[in-house]
Design a protein that fits this description.
This protein has about 90 residues and is mainly α. It is built from five helices and no strands. The longest helix has 15 residues.
C-alpha cells in the first residue's frame, strides 16, 4: 500500500486561520472537496479522505456549493437498488 505524506512548512501552518487542533481535519476535507470537484476523486474516495459519512459529505458539498457528479452508472445502480427493495 502506498500513501502520501504532505509536509507543510511551519510558516504556512502558522499562517493558516484554523486552530492548530483542527488543521489536519480541515485540510483533509478541503483537499477532498477540491479533488472531487475537479473529478480527480470519486465521491466515495473523496468522502473517505474527508473522514465523513456519505450524508455528511453530501452536506459538506452542498455547503461549499459543489454540485454532485451523478452519471448514468450511478443512476443505474440506484435504480437497481430500488428494484431490489421492492
Amino acid at each position: 500500500m502506498r500513501g502520501i505524506v504532505l509536509e507543510l512548512p511551519p510558516e504556512v501552518c502558522e499562517a493558516l486561520r484554523i486552530p492548530v487542533a483542527e488543521q489536519e481535519v480541515r485540510l483533509r476535507r478541503e483537499l477532498a472537496i477540491r479533488l472531487y470537484e475537479k473529478g480527480l476523486l470519486s465521491f466515495g474516495k473523496a468522502r473517505e479522505l474527508a473522514g465523513l459519512s456519505k450524508w455528511e459529505f453530501h452536506e459538506l458539498l452542498a455547503t461549499e456549493g459543489v454540485p454532485r457528479h451523478y452519471d448514468l452508472e450511478e443512476l443505474e445502480a440506484d435504480l437497481q437498488t430500488l428494484e431490489d427493495l421492492q
